[in-house]
Amino acid sequence: MLFLGASAAGQSTTNPIIQSQARFQPVLARQGMVVSAEALATQVGVEILRKGGNAVDAAVAVGFALAVTHPRAGNIGGGGFMMIHLRDEDRQVAIDYREMAPAAAERDMYLDENENVDQGKVRFSRAAAGVPGTVAGLLHALERYGTMKRRQVLAPAIKLARSGFKVSRDLSRSLGRARHVIEHGTARGVFYDRDDNPIKTGTLLKQPALARTLGRISKLGADGFYRGETAVQLALDMQQGEGLITQQDLGNYKVVERDPIVGSFRDHRVVSMPPPSSGGIHLVQMLNIIEGDDLAELGAGSAAVSHLLTEAMRRAYADRSVHLGDPDFTQVPMRRLTSKDYGKALRKTIGERATPSDKINPGEQIEAAAPGNTTHFSIIDADGNAVANTYTLNFSYGSGIYVPSLGFFLNNEMDDFVAKPGEPNGYGLIGDEANSVQPGKRPLSSMTPTLVLNRDGLPVLVTGSPGGSFIITTVLQVLLNVLEHGMNLAEAVSAPRIHHQWKPDMLFHERGVSPDTLKLLEGRGHTLRERRVWGFAGSAGYDGEWFYGFADSRRGGALAEGY
Ligand code: GLY
């Protein structure tokens, strides 16, 4: 039985016994729910819903607000993906607003004279930036699926940028952590003082340049970003380094609506993002591998379930490294990878012991780097329309290069391409030609904004997460915790996570997995590594009566709020 949370009276809407035992409780509401990584942005979304906006109106407002209040990942200088559920039509839309490689990009552009990857260039230079897609993507969603005027949904973000907001502890600390990657000088006077000390908690942060850029978008639409003054300034900034983005690249940027990946798990539909994200395909692939097992009987967090999940993850990420890339440039075997038959065939290759990753596909042993800083938000409106949106600058504050005249950070999404076959990117992911750099191509992503629908088309779970390569496995576990293990939304999101990505051959786990379980896993041949918590699976759900929300408490400053 699916169980999302408790009623306002403290009773479960479906199962009071489980409810009384739950240690974590979701937020409940009657009319709609917004969950984002930053409280002011969540409140912007709730206000839009209160004023009669639908989930898409709220999502667009939250997307622009996060660009102001959560600058490490909220953005107008990056890109992402939006999944929309239109309840009336029972139709799901996948909007691809991923960055595109500039026209001057070349396959080997990040190799130095010794054919080694120049890590500085691919991660922390102007050449690391793809053509930003966020503004085009959010406005596309608003025009096609929203109900409000552009000015209405941009107004809160412009106000936050122009009048300022009090810096949270979370923002101040993240700026402190990022000090070493942020290009010296560019962000001084806004986020740092003259000595590069981050703006202090409680200080009023005003971003007048960003307010002006947002004002142009409000007035002129996409042209306010991709043409005219913003485009001129951005192209000029590129010339200060080895940046490739030209005014023409900006003018040529295209949003693409793609067919979502649709899978199922037991009697629920799972609808997620297709390539150029690898998220939807591998989420469905992993669900197909494990669907024949009774995970509930084996027990959430047990060694048996953890082993099975790990082996499913290992196989999915091995496929990712070979088959996945921008579908406009490379043939991705989507049907095969997401078929139930293939899932069953892979299940047969899983035994009681760990399969060494080298037995699945030869490759180099590499480290998985620290997860980056994407951001996800989940929204459901009173009519049951839903939005799962994940967007990013790639790393925290992207390339660390801030464009002072425009007020935003540039992404370093080009690092999600394969700079050299077999060489790990910032997330330790390796790949091949399918994800090589080509002009106009979109780098492969792991972002997995996901909708889970019941037979009546209710969005019982709307979820996603940041975390680079850790995203897909995070979403998998949140889904299973709700659909298979009967956890409420808060427990499902809070439960300790594991992760495997084929290479390195390492089973990562958060603190909180029982030592006995870890011993059993080691006994089965897994190499374990504890790492600090990852992801922010801010999730929402609707059971036809109540709206549920939970802001993953792994990150400070987040908020789930309904009305
Ligand atoms: N930049 C991380 C991802 O898209 O997967």
> Rg, please?
22 Å
Beta-strand content bin: 15-25%
Helix/strand structural class: alpha+beta
Average pLDDT reading: 93
Annotation, overall tally of beta strands: 21
Helix content: 25-40%
Distance from first to last alpha carbon: 26 Å
* Main sheet summary: 7 strands, antiparallel
Q: Ligands in the structure?
A: glycine
The poorly predicted ranges are: 7-18, 362-366
Tell me about this structure:
It is globular and about 60 Å long. The chain has a seven-stranded antiparallel sheet. The two termini are 26 Å apart. The model is unreliable at 7-18 and 362-366 (pLDDT under 50). The longest helix has 21 residues, at 303-323. The chain has 563 residues and is α+β, with helices and mostly antiparallel strands. Helix content is 34%, strand content 15%. Strand 10 (375-380) and strand 11 (386-392) form a beta hairpin. Bound molecules: glycine. Glycine (GLY) binds next to loops. Glycine binds at residues 372, 374, 392, 394, 413, 416, 445-447, 468.
What's the structural blueprint in terms of helices and strands?
Layout: H1 16-21, E1 27-29, E2 33-36, H2 39-50, H3 55-69, E3 79-86, E4 91-97, H4 119-124, H5 134-145, H6 150-163, E5 165-166, H7 169-178, E6 204-205, H8 208-220, H9 223-226, H10 228-238, H11 247-252, E7 256-258, E8 261-265, E9 268-272, H12 279-290, H13 295-298, H14 303-323, H15 334-337, H16 340-348, H17 357-360, E10 375-380, E11 386-392, E12 402-403, E13 408-409, E14 450-453, E15 459-463, H18 471-483, H19 489-494, E16 498-499, E17 507-509, H20 515-523, E18 528-530, E19 539-542, E20 547-550, E21 559-562
Parallel strand pairs: 17-18
Antiparallel strand pairs: 1-20, 2-10, 2-21, 3-4, 3-11, 4-7, 5-6, 8-9, 9-14, 10-11, 12-13, 14-15, 16-17, 19-20
This protein binds glycine.
Glycine binds at residues 372, 374, 392, 394, 413, 416, 445-447, 468.
